[in-house]
Design brief:
Layout lengths: L1 E5 L3 H14 L11 H7 L10 E10 L2 E11 H7 L3 E9 L3 H17 L4 E4 L1 E2 L5 E2 L1 E4 L16 H6 L4 E12 L7 H10 L3 E5 L5 H15 L11 H14 L5 E6 L2 E10 L1 H5 L10 H10 L5 E9 L1 H4 L4 H18 L4 E8 L3 H9 L3 E12 L1
Parallel strand pairs: 4-5, 13-14
Antiparallel strand pairs: 1-2, 2-3, 3-4, 5-15, 6-7, 8-15, 9-14, 9-15, 10-11, 11-12, 12-13
Helix pairs in contact: 6-12, 7-8
């Protein structure tokens, strides 16, 4: 018999966090997230906690954990899309239809008690954090802050009445294969007199983070499911980036000295933590810092990029994106980065997809965001 257990204490939360390491133990594509980071994610240390109410559950069979799920209500999302929205996330389970049914029943009942009628997900905990259910690309490990999953997940989720909301794509690019076709190179050269590209100014780090936040919130405001970053969220993100990202992996584009776009390159931390099994002690921290310091990481991810909305549909908008990618390419060469993932890109974002494919990037992973009316 399957029993659904509401997570109400630290012991259960630790089990919730570590369950995937057992589920995926024979999956060569699995990389165990750092347990300490996951514990902080589900704590007051996560700045999103200021506007997200969440609950988690475990499924047990004969005393053994066989699944997990979360449900969350985001007040910022409700402010934009209505007071009846809610989300699910962190869905992992053995291939048993009844386990999935009972987990989703628990999540949906809780969401309904909070007034939710429109459910989207998976998010952990909202769209600005890990998003989407892996649909294609199971044969390669996830990049930093991207999700993994089992091939049967999609069918089990759809059996609960969820349908496709929108798909997210991850693009892969080998730096040696990056090239700007003559037509694009000509546009870039013409724009250089108007657009200036500069590195992040570490002496004004806090102020620079808020500049990036303003650009992001402008650039993404019309996207599916958009929720703005708060000042506190971007400040905390800055504290993390400060230690993980060199200055020359964050670039800002300006027109007439006004910031209009940015790009962030993140060393692929998953590559560095792959053999730590989620543990930082006793030597995990030392191993991680050593690998990052001596540039053992050979892959990277571009998790954030944006062009202010007023420039997106102008002739210069796509060119600004190309100039930022060019600048980051040079920095990656300095740090011996050989390949990168650009993710995620909305499937409907034809403009960005066209740019990436023209310069040599290929879509190699697909993630799905689902929706359901209760």
């Amino acid at each position: 018999m399957i029993h659904i257990e509401k997570v109400i204490n630290k012991r259960q939360l630790k089990s919730f966090i570590t369950f995937p390491s057992d589920l995926f133990q024979h999956d060569p594509g699995w990389i165990n997230p750092l347990n300490l980071e996951r514990l902080e994610h589900f704590s007051k240390k996560n700045p999103a906690d200021e506007h997200i109410e969440w609950q988690t559950w475990l499924a047990k069979k004969e005393g053994k954990i066989v699944g997990r799920i979360s449900a969350q209500v985001d007040s910022l999302h409700r402010g934009l899309y209505g007071p009846d929205t809610g989300h699910f996330g962190m869905i992992d389970a053995v291939d048993d239809p009844e386990v999935f049914r009972l987990l989703f029943s628990a999540a949906e009942n809780w969401l309904a008690s909070k007034g939710a009628r429109k459910i989207t997900g998976p998010f952990s905990l909202n769209i600005n954090q890990e998003s989407g259910l892996l649909i294609d690309g199971f044969d390669t490990p996830p990049s930093a802050m991207m999700t993994h999953g089992m091939p049967y997940y999609s069918a089990r989720v759809e059996q609960q009445g969820y349908t496709q909301g929108i798909d997210l794509l991850a693009y892969w690019m080998r730096l040696a294969e990056l090239q700007f076709p003559p037509s694009l190179a000509k546009l870039m050269d013409h724009a250089r007199s108007k657009v200036s590209i500069r590195c992040l100014n570490r002496k004004k780090f806090s102020e620079e983070m808020q500049v990036l936040r303003q650009i992001f919130n402008s650039a993404w405001q019309k996207n599916w499911g958009f929720v703005p970053f708060t000042e506190h969220e971007f400040a905390v993100m800055g504290d993390q980036l400060k230690f993980l990202v060199p200055d020359d992996m964050i670039f800002i584009a300006e027109i007439d000295s006004a910031p209009v776009a940015f790009i962030i390159g993140l060393p692929n931390i998953n590559e560095a933590i792959a053999d730590l099994n989620g543990r930082l002690f006793p030597l995990g921290w030392a191993k991680l810092l050593w690998r990052l310091k001596v540039s053992e990481v050979r892959t990277a991810r571009v998790p954030l990029m944006g062009v202010k909305i007023e420039h997106q549909f102008s002739r210069i908008g796509p060119v600004i994106a190309l100039l930022l990618i060019e600048a980051l390419h040079a920095a990656f060469g300095k740090w011996n980065i050989e390949a990168l993932e650009m993710s995620w890109i909305l499937e409907s974002n034809a403009g960005m997809r066209n740019i990436l494919e023209k310069i040599g990037a290929i879509p190699y992973k697909r993630y799905r965001l689902y929706e359901k009316q209760l």
